[in-house]
Each structure stands twice: as structure tokens, then as C-alpha cells.
Write a structure and sequence with these properties.
It contains 6 helices and no strands. By secondary structure, the chain is mainly alpha-helical. It has a single domain, classed as dinb family like domain (Four Helix Bundle (Hemerythrin (Met), subunit A), Up-down Bundle), CATH 1.20.120.450. The longest helix has 26 residues, at about 135-160.
Amino acid sequence: MESNKEIHLLLQLVGEAYEKRAWQGTNLRGSIRGLTAQEAAWRPAPDRHNIWEIVVHAAYWKYIVRRRLLREKKASFPLKGSNWIKRPIVMSKNAWREDIRLLNEMHRSMCEAIALLKPSDLNLKPAGSKFTNASIISGIACHDVYHTGQIQLLKRLMKQ
């Protein structure tokens, strides 16, 4: 029987980048904790992304990673659009909460897909990809950490 150490390590990495305590400090979920819809919608300039869009962007890529790992055919992301989806459509506390819920759901679903992998799957490349499953999984963790830094910076700029 194969060891699942690699899978557990990748799940730990993804968890620390998203919601679990980590040495690097704030994770993605922590960076948006307590933000209002108005704060999430604030833009540093007219053509720049806001925190809300970063949250939906992160959800979208978690959906893509899950789809690639499970070798699913192209399906539909729950929101219209891809990659960078303009937000907010409606400025409301409920709309902001729904997009946070979407982020949580996409993360949970992605982690379930990771947990289904066998260690031998980690070296496979999904169809059309230049990267292995292991690279894709570590990459999505880095993606969360990268956008966490952006969110932290936007929160500081918002207060100037």
C-alpha cells in the first residue's frame, strides 16, 4: 500500500495558506475576516481589482484545480465569467457573504479532490497541462498566500 504522506503534506500546505494557523502569519480567510461589503468593494484606483474580486478569483482557481485533479470535463463555475469576475454586482452584506461562502465551498471541494488522490497521481499531468498534480496543488497554496498579501496591502491603503 502506498504512503499518503505526500498527500497529507500537500493538504497541510493548502490548509495553512487558506485557513489553518501558519508560521507566515495571516492566511487568506484571516485576511478577509471582519471586512464589510463596502471595504471589500473599495478600489485603490478605477481600473484596479478590489478585495471582493480577489476572493472570487481565488474561488475560481480552486474550482479549476479541483476540475483538473479529477480530470473533469469543462463545467460551469457557479458565477458567470472566469478568472477575474467583476464584483460587486450588488453591494450588500448578503452578496459579500455569498461570495465568501462560494470561496469556502470551492476550497472544501478542492481539498476533497486532493484527498482522493493516490501518491502515484502526484506525478501525473492533467490533459493539456505542463505541470504535475503536485505542482498544481502547491501552486494553489502559493496563489492563496500571494493574494493574501495583496489583500493585506489593500486594507492598509484603504485606511490612508
